[in-house]
Design goal:
By secondary structure, the protein is of the alpha+beta class. It has one domain: Jelly Rolls. About 25% of the residues lie in helices and about 20% in strands. The longest helix has 18 residues. The chain starts with 9 loop residues before the first helix and ends in a 13-residue tail after the last helix. The model has no long low-confidence stretch (mean pLDDT about 95). Bound molecules: 2-oxoglutaric acid. 2-oxoglutaric acid (AKG) binds next to strand 9.
Length: about 250
């Protein structure tokens, strides 16, 4: 049995991802560590806010692997990496995208979707060993403040969710609630959605997708690697430092 720490059992977590499509891993980091990450995000949100993000009431911050060391540390968190190595059955996992997502009070949209690269794959989708998503809770997630919505079992459907789901909440869907520092790890094909924030405080998450080294990543992680201060071996691996780069035969 593979275990990355005393509290969490990697084999059980991976079995749940394959069976139900997701697993909520409580307290991957302590709340005060999540508060440090949330505090590191705050100036980035302030500096990068635009009229568009203010109107949309939602803001994505990219490039976080190099914008603060705590985000590089969380990207390479041993438990999260062990989960994706076991789930993808590949020690050489890489990161496909790593960003922060904030829903401000008044955000009120739904947008059911699976994650990249499923949008681009012919149906029925291949369901094994493609990619896995991690949502880190940087604030306590509640129904009120926009805990992410997800549909258990939808990872086995092999196609996208019905468009009508953005108009009416589907029966059986669940809402991600939990204490900051926890993480939802889920199958990349699982149908999920951002939800309205009806609270008085912003709600932030980190989103990290992990995949196998021969897949095209969603973001150019390798281009960001030189900007990371003193990257660890695992950060170099995750950001594609060791993966095959296409060249020209004889060229
Ligand atoms: O922030 C959230 O609750 C979900 C965001 C999401 O689904 C995404 O960025 O793909």
């Amino acid at each position: 049995m593979k275990s990355a720490d005393a509290q969490h059992n990697v084999s059980e977590i991976v079995a749940e991802i394959y069976e139900r499509g997701y697993c909520l891993v409580p307290s991957v980091i302590a709340p005060d560590k999540a508060d440090q990450a949330r505090a590191a995000l705050e100036p980035l949100l302030e500096n990068e806010a635009t009229d568009e993000t203010r109107v949309a009431k939602t803001q994505r911050v990219g490039g976080i692997a190099y914008k603060h060391p705590i985000f590089a540390e969380l990207l390479a968190h041993p438990l999260i990496v062990a989960i994706w190595q076991a789930y993808l059955d590949d020690d050489d996992v890489i990161c496909s995208t790593w960003s922060a997502n904030t829903a401000y009070p008044g955000y009120d949209k739904y947008g059911w979707h699976p994650d990249y690269p499923y949008w681009w794959i012919n149906q029925p989708w291949p369901l094994e060993k493609v990619c896995g998503q991690t949502i880190w809770l940087l604030d306590d997630f509640t129904e009120e403040n926009g805990g992410t919505g997800f549909m258990p079992g939808s990872h086995l459907k092999g196609h996208p969710p019905p468009k009508e789901w953005n108009e009416a909440w589907p029966a059986g869907a669940q809402i991600l609630t939990g204490v900051r520092g926890s993480a939802l790890v889920f199958h990349g094909a699982l149908w999920h959605t951002a939800r309205p924030n009806r609270s008085y405080k912003a709600r932030s998450a980190l989103l990290g997708m992990y995949t196998r080294p021969f897949f095209l990543t969603q973001e150019d992680m390798l281009a960001q690697l030189p900007k990371v201060d003193n990257p660890s071996e695992m950060i170099c691996q995750l950001m594609g430092g060791g993966r095959h780069q296409p060249g020209i035969i004889g060229g």
